[in-house]
Amino acid sequence: MTKLAMEGGRPARTKPLPPNYPGATVYGAEEAQGAAEVIHAQSPFRYYGPNVKNEVRTFEEEMARHLNVPYVLGVTSCTAALVVALKALGIGYGDKVIVPAITFLATPGAVVCANAVPVFVDADDSMNLDPADLERVMDKDVKAIIAVSILGNPCDMDPILAFAKKHNLYVIEDVAQSCGASYKGKVTGTMGDIGVYSFQMNKILTAGEGGALVTSNPELFDRAVRYHDQGMFRDKARYGIESADEEKAFIGQNYRMSEITGAVLNEQWKKLGGIVSSMQTRCRELQAKLTAELPDMKFRRLADPEGDIGSNLGMILPSTAFTQAFIKAMAAENIGAYTLYGSRPVYMLPQLFHQRTAEKDNFPFNYPFENPVVYTEDMCPQAVDYIARTVYVPISPLLTEQDVEEIAEGIVKVYRHIAQVQV
Fold first, then answer.
1. Residue 394 forms beta bridges with which residues?
2. HSE of 386 in the Cβ direction (CA atoms, 13 Å)?
3. Burial of 281 by CB count in 10 Å (0-12 exposed, 13-18 middle, 19+ buried)?
4. Beta pairing class for 117-121 and 96-100
5. How confident is the model at residue 243 (pLDDT cuts 50, 70, 90)?
6. pLDDT band at 18 (very low <50, low <70, confident <90, very high)
7. Which residues does UniProt mark as catalytic (predicted)?
8. CATH architecture of 29-271
9. What are phi and psi of 194, to 5 degrees?
């Protein structure tokens, strides 16, 4: 058996892989030029200035055209988009929102910031929420489901939407990690009531920060625009809704996207197809090579293999000990591999688990629900199991065929070695 690099053998790669920042790795002169034009125009605010370039508006219109939805709103982050979405749906104090056990802190955090309380649904071997577990957390106070497509893999939306329809719930699609994904021919983020996107540093497209909200519902869009701009709707005529009822106006916050962000995203959006195509090709090549060499290896299940963007190859390993040894050995081979979120479901983070907020009496957790919200470590056992055993290898859009060969070599070598040692 080939000796591992950590034991003195030749590493599978002589240099590290490209960093796991898909959009940023394809930055070029065009992003710099777009940002520079806004700066030279001295007009970084989207709504007025001496020479506004309408970069955010252009980005919203191009994104709407690509997604085939009527309404897109650029905001400061995906967290902002989630809060705006919840406020647009009228969700707040005294409401519960279903959130997957495997997601980033921002998802349940946005629920709390909207003054509602998250209740957590288990995950399945896709690492997305398990539709079969939705009924367990359902009660009369639940008003919405946030379906998070983890690392490029779209959620299994049919049963989620069917459950929501049965119980008259809203659905928010959080596709922060999966821009460009699709499910049964439908673009991820366009199937629920509202979809939210992220353009943070390690996302598929990036401006460092930034987010977007999409919907086909004009009333929800009106509320979203108002909440993101302190209760105002400055350009109603653009959408043909000049007669929007000002009697329904309400106080909002400031989550407006800047023109500099919009300019960068206009250039990034042009590259989405190329990024996704490259990642899909390399991810499928890698999985095929591993399947041929390691026929017993279990991969993360894909709800729609054609719609997965291939940003990460997920491998479900036999045990937590196997996983930890695998990651350590892979690092020595100059191949990055990782588990998500410290190998823990999001509800185990102390600020959530102990229901602590910056507000008086830990508002909104202090609401006197008929069915109190209590979190226990074992309430989502599948999530606890899968998150600790699922290892991801990021697939950069810059990978070459030679890179894929070397990654496959390293994975096969490490997997076989650990399997032999731990048997």
1. 312
2. 22
3. middle
4. parallel
5. low
6. very high
7. 203 (proton acceptor)
8. 3-Layer(aba) Sandwich (3.40)
9. -145, 145
Integer angstrom CA distances of residue 351 from 83, 109, 307, 339, 354: 18, 10, 34, 21, 6
Catalytic residue check, 413: no
Burial of 294 (0-12, 13-18, 19+ CB in 10 A): middle
| Span 109-125, average pLDDT | 98
Percent of the chain with pLDDT over 70: 99
Half-sphere exposure of 105 (CA within 13 A, CB side): 10
Q: Which CATH architecture has domain 5-20+272-343+383-422?
A: Alpha-Beta Complex (3.90)
What are the residue boundaries of the structural domains of the chain, listed by start?
A: 5-20+272-343+383-422, 29-271
pLDDT tens readout for residues 31-73: 999 999 999 999 999 999 999 999 999 999 999 999 999 999 9
CA dihedral 128, 92, 214, 35 (to 10 degrees): -100
Catalytic residue among 96, 203, 271, 413: 203
Backbone angles phi, psi at 36, to 5 degrees: -65, -40
Instruction: Identify the DSSP state of 388.
Output: H
Q: What is the pLDDT of residue 245?
A: 66
